[in-house]
Write a structure and sequence with these properties.
This protein has about 725 residues and is of the alpha/beta class. The chain is built from 19 helices and 30 strands. A hairpin with a 6-residue loop joins strand 20 and strand 21. Bound molecules: adenosine-5'-diphosphate and zinc ion. The site of zinc ion has 8 residues, from loops.
């Protein structure tokens, strides 16, 4: 289509086009002869000096003089963005107050998927071997490998024939091989819903039936599938997945990224005879492209993914499962601040299909929604088979002080050595990476802080570095104090997992110890490798951070030691106690899964703390009631609403000015309180000075219009950023 700007009739159709950039709304364009475009179609439009891909977002709004309208350049032949996804994008933008274009960008995360798929190049033998072909051994191997099989792609052929690409190219030139194009190979297949899962127990069957009923009825409903680790929740929801698949719908299973292990995928493959489509930040670009397209075309029936999988263009989504619904990893903090669990529910409402929330330790929000009758609770009260929840005991550190320089109290040391002597495995949990959280000079008291952040540098002894866990700043660990110049006086204060490993090595020499943190485990594959080593008993003792709290099966693990149960109870975070409780309970759930009874020891200076007494007593309900009362009393979520404004910039004075102006313009009405501006807990982060304002309202007041009016009053200079976080989870 020619660029007919000059000649186009003025009355030609106008369309609204949304562009995946941080823009508040769509822009009008002239249809330019593309008169059969409909909502959701992808088009190329000019934007400033560039050409960009956007999505038709309705008829033109007519707010621009037609003479100044630019024209759509071309249309993209790809299936349109489905209507439900467009509705969802609008919903998420309205709720999070993120620009509409920024949310669209999440739904168009793979622009190259809009291009036609690249065929795979493969080789096959020519009908006849040309006369006089010089047959080297390598050439001969290639021809043999291809003798009577299907065409093979280059990589396979090079491997199987032990031949170089030059050999292949030479054979093509000589006319002995032909290149053919094959359709792209999908990294997943069509799930077989006729395969039987394990025979479910009575309660499991009831649970599965309740969930499947919603799926078949194709109605929106939220269920909480709750049960201790090992009670069979996964088996039960896979049953509902099978129902949805058999009913011709697509299914999304959301998992925290780190829980998306090959183990989980293998389990799926055993149940359905094929791998599901996988979606997370590490998926390589070719696979992303194929997956995005296959989700849109309906070829991909099941997607298992991290939170961003919510924004894929499902053709016929009929069920979302949110596994580990309590996990804070579902809240996205950067860019568009959204909570994937909450948005999954919105997605279900838009598509009119059920959503299943799965966990052993429901979030307070979800529990309250059950109490309010909005979600149905489906409970699996016991572990499958013989395994039982291990007893939890406190070690009062005031009575049982660890030996000088150590962090493990005598009763824990004893339990460790007995367990390992019996040939069983133990886990030590400490939610702190590195060797020591603080380094100081014993001569002058100098403490090593981060130059970019309000934070101490954490010593990583293995790497001989001091590192900031907020911005990644690192320096080699010096031998001499940079402040007073005294050599060899630097002391490590407090323990990290590396230091615990060192202590265990000294008290239990010769044992095989593995450390599991985000420093040495970089993704699901690493997790799987480590989990396999543990399952195969190549490790005696595992030391880890919250990463070990996920639902892995360790049948020979019979002792869990929690090094510092107080860590996290005193934080300023609204959900600190809840999170500690969940984490401790999850870690405790690692012990004694098979027919080996487990034991959990918990080191604390504060054994009377209500969180710990509830945990020790197994009084789930009591903890929940205490926590609920505290939140209700303070008007905190879910009994009130919160929204945060984070003002950041390089120049602290300008940041203060903007934050101050926002403070003065804060809404002043019944049921609304604004706290701040205050320096954010890490007042300087990555060199950005940060101030926070927190708006707290009663539940009846919707926060978005208030925020909108509030922000509209302030002119923000371009050197300063004001970020909105509705329902904040992180108070950093
Ligand atoms: P959860 O998801 O609650 O942690 P799983 O579904 O992973 O529990 O079940 C724990 C273990 O018990 C798994 O190995 C699972 O295959 C097994 N299991 C659960 N229910 C059954 C059943 N009805 N029959 C046989 N094995 C089962
Ligand atoms: Zn830093």
């Amino acid at each position: 289509m020619p660029d007919s700007d000059a000649t186009a009739p003025q009355d030609s159709r106008q369309l609204s086009v949304l562009i995946p950039l941080p823009l508040a709304g769509p822009y009008d364009y002239r249809a330019n002869g593309y008169d059969d475009l409909s909502d959701g179609d992808f088009v190329v439009v000019p934007l400033g000096p560039r050409e960009v891909i956007g999505v038709v977002w309705g008829e033109g709004q007519g707010d621009v003089d037609p003479d100044n309208l630019r024209a759509i350049s071309s249309c993209v032949s790809a299936s349109p963005l489905p209507p439900d996804l467009r509705t969802f994008v609008e919903w998420v933008s309205r709720y999070t107050m993120a620009p509409l274009g920024s949310v669209l960008r999440m739904a168009m995360s793979v622009p190259s998927a809009l291009e036609p798929p690249r065929p795979r190049r493969a080789y096959q033998r020519a009908a006849a071997v040309p006369d006089g072909l010089r047959l080297t051994p390598a050439r001969q191997r290639v021809l043999e490998v291809l003798a009577d099989g299907p065409p093979r792609d280059a990589a396979d052929l090079r491997r199987d024939a032990a031949a170089s690409q030059a050999v292949l190219t030479g054979l093509v030139e000589a006319g002995a091989l032909e290149i053919v194009q094959l359709p792209p190979l999908l990294p997943f297949g069509h799930p077989d819903t006729t395969l039987a899962g394990p025979e479910l127990s009575g309660l499991q069957t009831e649970a599965a039936q309740a969930l499947s009923e919603d799926v078949r009825a194709r109605r929106f409903a939220v269920s909480l599938l709750e049960g201790v680790t090992g009670s069979g929740k996964t088996e039960v929801y896979l049953d509902a997945v099978a129902t949805a698949l058999a009913d011709g719908r697509q299914v999304l299973v959301l998992l925290p990224e780190i829980a998306l292990t090959p183990q989980w995928l293998d389990r799926f493959a055993r149940r359905f005879g094929t791998q599901p489509a996988v979606w997370h930040s590490d998926v390589k670009s070719t696979r992303r492209r194929l997956t995005w397209r296959a989700v849109a075309s309906g070829e991909a029936r099941v997607v298992v993914g991290a939170r961003s999988a919510l924004f894929l263009p499902y053709a016929e989504l009929g069920l979302i499962v949110v596994d580990e619904e309590h996990d804070p990893a579902f809240k996205q903090e950067d860019g568009v601040a959204y909570h994937a669990r909450d948005m999954a529910i919105v997605r279900g409402q838009i598509g009119n299909f059920p959503v299943i929330l799965v966990t052993a330790t429901p979030s307070l929000e979800t529990r309250v929604n059950v109490e309010r009758g909005r979600y149905r609770r489906v409970h699996l009260p016991e572990r499958h088979g013989v395994a039982v929840m291990p007893p939890i005991e406190a070690i009062d550190l005031r009575e049982h002080a660890p030996p000088r320089g150590g962090f493990l109290a005598p009763p824990l040391r004893e339990a460790l050595s007995e367990t390992l002597d019996r040939g069983e495995q133990a886990l030590l949990f400490l939610n702190r990476r590195g060797y020591a959280p603080l380094t100081l000079c014993r001569h002058c008291g100098h403490r090593f802080g981060c130059p970019n952040c309000t934070a101490w540098l954490v010593e990583h002894r293995f790497r001989r570095q001091l590192q900031c866990h907020h911005c990644g700043f690192t320096v080699p660990r010096p031998d001499v104090c940079p402040s007073c110049g005294t050599p060899d006086m630097l002391a490590a204060c407090g323990p990290g997992v590396e230091r615990i490993a060192e202590e265990v090595e000294s008290i239990l020499p010769g044992k095989r110890i593995a450390v599991m943190t985000s420093d040495n485990v970089h993704g699901p594959d690493d997790v799987a490798a480590l989990v396999k080593m543990i399952a195969e008993r190549e490790v005696d003792l595992l030391i880890g951070t919250q990463m070990v709290a996920k639902g892995h099966h360790f049948p020979f693990l019979t002792l869990v030691g929690i090094v510092d149960a107080d860590l996290g109870l005193s934080g300023g975070d609204l959900r600190a106690a809840e999170r500690t409780y969940q984490m401790l309970q999850q870690v405790a759930g690692r012990a004694g899964r098979a027919d080996h009874p487990g034991r959990v020891l918990l080191q604390t200076y504060d054994p009377e703390h209500p969180v710990l007494t509830a945990l020790i007593g197994g009084e789930d309900e009591k903890f929940f009631q205490l926590e609920k009362e505290a939140r209700e009393f303070g008007g905190w979520p879910p009994f009130g609403r919160l929204a945060a404004l984070i003002v950041s910039g390089r120049d602290p004075d300008v940041v203060d000015q903007v934050a101050g102006a926002l403070g003065r313009a804060a809404p002043d009405q019944e049921g609304v309180r604004v706290l701040g501006p205050a320096p954010a807990p890490f007042a300087v982060l990555r060199g950005q000075h940060r101030r926070r304002l927190l708006m707290k309202t009663t539940r009846a007041i919707p926060v978005q219009p208030l925020l909108g009016d509030w922000l509209a009053q302030i002119k923000v200079p371009s050197s300063v950023r004001v970020r909105v976080d509705v329902d904040p989870y992180s108070f950093l």
